[in-house]
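Record type: monomer structure entry
Structure origin: computed from sequence
Chain ID: A
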Amino acid sequence: MQTILVSQTNPEAFSSLQEAILSIDDSHQEKIRIFIEPGIYEEKVFIRKENIEIVGSGREKTIFRYGDGARKPRPDGEGEYGTFNTAVIMFAGKDITVKDLTIESTAGPGDVAGQALAIYVSADRCSFHHCNFLGWQDTVFVGLTGSKPMLPDFFTESSVNIHHKAARSYFYDCFISGDVDFIFGPNVAFFEKCEIFSRKRQSEANSYITAANTPIDQEFGLVFSDCKLTGDAAQESVYLGRPWRDFAKTAFLNCHMGAHIIPEGWGNWGKIKAEAVCSYIEHNNNGPGANTEKRVPFSKQITNPALSEYFSKENVLMGEDEWNPSAE
């Protein structure tokens, strides 16, 4: 396997991840690894590649940071950045693996900066292992290109396919922090043994972990398996999710839920129709926030043990090509 080095101290290496990405030909066949030495990399990165692996030196040692928020004025004078131009790193293409690093939005809380993505994942078969994703509002987005995107020429002119029937993401042993809708989008995403950390809000009492907008004909949305829901948010102040679009699908299975989870569990975002058609599922969870006695009636608490198999990583992510990412 070819390995490309990114370093802040080695003059023979690339000094930024973006430079390393641009050195890879769109038509390459063999998997290429990009190894990133320790350092804090203040850069905004656009990735449109296939069959690459990005490996840091550890999540506390290799850190990517940037501070674009939705309220920032666009350089072209066309209003503000908006949510989908704020990502620290944008992933597009297919078969991208990321390991052992941190990606952090430094824009600040949503009441100051607006929405601010740490990652924007529109790639299919994209997996993350032992990573931190840090932010406030809208930290992790799994979805297609948003409206009026500001994309560099090298991204738009690339020949790598970015149109997928269904884009799938896998997160293993990752730490994700935020306060409002900080894991959201329409794509299929599976979170295994991750820590989901709800930050304390300064301006409002309630927070939301997820905001799915699953397409009506898509079987799965956001699935959390064997995860820990932690945070410094106030007790009983955080919802598990709310429907960005009516047919939102989110499931929590075998998860530990802290006392910050609100007894009702889920919000409807003021959408009566969503209550009738959304899919909010809980199974075999534990902890003080997992008590379902006061859950909203449009959520489902299912005890059938076969549900764990139905919502297994293998079944959720397999698709037509039977993709099965390994936990590494």
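Annotation 1: The longest strand covers residues 45-55.
Annotation 2: The chain has two domains: 1-175, 179-320.
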